[in-house]
Amino acid sequence: MAFRTLLAQRPTGIQLLARTSRQGAVTPCITSLAASESRRTISSTRAVLHENPLGIPRKPPAPGAGPKGPAPTMPRMQRGLPQKMPIKGVKHIIAVASGKGGVGKSTTSVNLALAIAGMNKRVGILDADIFGPSIPRLMNLSGEPELTGTEDRLVPLTNFGVKCMSMGFLVDEEAPVVWRGLMVMKALQQLLHQVEWGELDLLVIDMPPGTGDTQLTISQQIPLSGVVIVSTPQDIALIDARKGVNMFKKVNAPILGMVQNMSLHVCSNCNHESHIFGDGGAERTAKEMNLDFLGDVALHSDICQLSDKGQPVVVSRPDSKHAQYYKAIASKVVAKLWPSEAATPSS
Ligand SMILES: Nc1ncnc2c1ncn2[C@@H]1O[C@H](COP(=O)(O)OP(=O)(O)O)[C@@H](O)[C@H]1O
Ligand SMILES: [Mg+2]
Ligand SMILES: [Zn+2]
């Protein structure tokens, strides 16, 4: 059954939000969202909102389970730290992160994932940016994820051979997600553990900016094989990138290295080269922080325009210089994740 059809059958947070945004009035918190509903739905909706923001139908209680149904699947706290839980069927998980927004995390995630998929790996992308999902646009995907036969997991959408899941599939492109942290965390849990990826060699998680709840949840609850830090060479981005690095170090997530995005600008008219955001800042920072430098991606209007059209440069211009940047980075990442295959030539 289509996911949105199911949503239509029971009021959920998503449905509420869609309704609210269609009416043009965006209310700033769950409580006031719920208050706009009839009295009966206030309490029931609230329960659904907090427990199950994506509205995934629940299984009936297992025989012998307590009155509240089967035990929750959320990892239990152990000595104050949540237990890490692998994602079913997924061999390696990497996060693409930075402290700052707009430095190219999503663009890098997509092109890196596609470049690695081109190296004979089964790859998926999880968009962990609940408030600003970019994957639907970048991967030219829209529509409703189906539910699995058991109706407890979402089926990812696929384009260019890469499976994708994003909050953006569950709400209209212009509808804001107006949720408090608790809801966001629960939605993240569902995106992490209730998606049917099948068998994947690699899941790339496109992270939101910052060093908050989402970053902590993902680094503490998911066994990350590594983190790729993206930064521009600009000091203001590097300051935040350092914070990102330090946060992942603190939670013992291995850092694969740093990507320097938008380093060199090549004018599409005259081929004049300039370092708009400074020269080599991310490379220097990587050295100072004892991290590997994974490579450069130049600032070019093609990358931006093709991204906006949902035609990532790695697949739409596979022989371009830009695609080569991403493929070079992909080769380094693959060599780190699968050291025994390090000699495999990248194509
Ligand atoms: N190397 C690049 N050259 C040109 N535009 C880029 C490049 N990298 C990213 N962009 C553009 O910059 C904007 C922000 O990129 P995005 O990947 O969404 O950043 P983030 O996910 O870090 O917020 C987008 O419009 C994207 O197309
Ligand atoms: Mg992004
Ligand atoms: Zn010029």
Write up this protein:
A hairpin with a 2-residue loop joins β1 and β2. The chain is 37% helix and 17% strand. By secondary structure, the chain is of the alpha/beta class. The protein has helices at 3-9, 13-22, 30-35, 39-51, 105-117, 135-138, 181-193, 213-221, 235-250, 281-288, 301-308, 313-316, 321-337, and strands at residues 77-78, 81-82, 90-97, 123-127, 157-159, 162-166, 200-206, 226-231, 255-266, 273-274, 293-299. α5 packs across α13. The strands form two sheets. Strands 3, 4, 5, 6, 7, 8, 9, 10 and 11 form a nine-stranded mixed beta sheet that branches. It has one domain (90-339): Rossmann fold (3-Layer(aba) Sandwich). The chain is built from 13 helices and eleven strands. Bound molecules: adenosine-5'-diphosphate, magnesium ion and zinc ion. Adenosine-5'-diphosphate binds next to α5, β9, β11 and α11.
